[in-house]
Amino acid sequence: MDIIIPFHELEFTYARSRGPGGQNVNRTNSAAILRWNLQRSQAFSEAVKLRLAANLAGQLTDDGDILIRSDEHRDQDQNRSSCINKLQIILKKALFVPKRRVATKPKRSAVRRRLDSKKHLSENKLLRKKVAP
Q1: How far is CA 33 from CA 11, 60, 76, 89, in A?
Q2: pLDDT at position 5
Q3: Which residues are CB-neighbours of 91 under 8 A, at least 6 positions away?
Q4: pTM of the model as a whole
Q5: Less CB within 10 Å around the terminal CB: N or C of the chain?
């Protein structure tokens, strides 16, 4: 499932990079910072927005924005693409719904095997006891 967010909802700013690039890093703004507001987004329904807000509560700013920074690459475009990929991964994890666990009872044979094993270990330990004269 791919998450599609309109590009006009993504706000990019650029800063000096901490990543690779040698002396060129000090002169170019190659790090990309992505800002995306969850509440103003048109990409999701209200129910999905509530679920995302609950799951991403620790990553949202006071304004309801998600901030993602990327300075892994020397190129600004690659860092921008990396930010978008990171946003998609975060949203996929937040939208994941785990399967409900169905409670089951162990089979009778498994219970018997476990008890037999316990009895066998107990007998081994009894054989290690010192015999009283």
Answers
A1: 8, 15, 10, 16
A2: 86
A3: 3, 52
A4: 0.71
A5: C
